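=== RUN LOG ===
request id: a7f3
mode: sequence -> structure
chains: 1
length: 149
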Amino acid sequence: MSSNRTDQTMKPATAAKKLGVYLPATPAEFQEGVVTRSELNALQADPPQWLQTLRAEGPHPRPVVAAKLGISIAGLARGGVTDPLTTAQIEALKTDLPDWLQQERATQADVRKEAVRVKEKQEQQEREQQEKRDKPTRPSRPTAPRRRS
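=== RESULT ===
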C-alpha cells in the first residue's frame, strides 16, 4: 500500500514570518497563494532576487527591526515605532541614537544580564543537587527490633 503524501502548506503570512520579511512588501503572487514546506525550503536555500532585496533593504517587520536595533518588540512600541522600517531608517536611528533607543538598549542589556544570572544560579543548584545524590552515604547501623510490652 503506498501513501500519497501531500506537502504541508502554510498561509503566506506564516511563510513571510519564517522568512523574516514584511508580507505587504512581498510580490502579489506570494501574498495570494499558499506556500508549501518544500517551496519555503527552496526560498530559504536559494532566495530569489525579490527576497534578497527585501532582506537587505526592507521594509522589515517589527521582530527584525527590534533585533537590528538590539531592543525588544515592546521597546519599539514604547519608542513609538509601530510601522515597518527600511534598513536606511534603522541605520539612521542607530546613528542618531535617540534617548528612547539608548534607554531601551540599557533595559535589554539588564534583561540579558539577569537571564544569565538566573541561569547560572539554576546550574549551581543543579550541581549541588547532583553532588548530594552522588555523595556516598554512611551505612546505618542495624537496629534491634523493638520489643512489644
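=== NOTES ===
Strands lie at 9-10, 35-36.
The two ends are 76 Å apart (CA to CA).
=== END ===
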